[in-house]
Amino acid sequence: MPIYEYVCEKCGAHLEVLQKMSDKPLTRCKSCGGRLERIISQSSFILKGSGWYLTDYARKERQQKEGKSSEGDKTSSKSEA
Fold first, then answer.
1. CA triplet 56, 71, 77: central angle to 5 degrees?
2. Least confidently predicted of 6-10, 12-16, 63-67, 69-73
3. What is the H or E stretch that residue 18 is in?
4. Rounded to 5 degrees, what are φ and ψ at 28?
């Protein structure tokens, strides 16, 4: 179940509520009765390990391209000789 964050427009209270995705959003603040607005919070999703970073993908592609071009250079120099 995701945690939803709400902020009260009247008193500025900040709430974090564990709700099902099918539950209706909260509308009223319990402390002052003001209108609640659901806010988008920062995700805690982190990718770790090799292959998840732009630099990892770039290295693999670069190595494959360099390998192909160096093989192509070797075959063309052999055919010329």
1. 150
2. 69-73
3. strand 14-18
4. -125, 140
At 78, which amino acid appears?
K
Cα angle: 72, vertex 74, 77; to 5 degrees: 105
Helices and strands (DSSP H and E) totals, the chain: 1, 3
The DSSP code for 48 is -
Query: Rounded to whole angstroms, what are the CA distances from 36 to 7, 16, 17, 24, 43?
Result: 6, 12, 12, 13, 21
- How much is the pLDDT for 14? 92
Residue 39 CA to residue 7 CA, distance in Å, equals 7
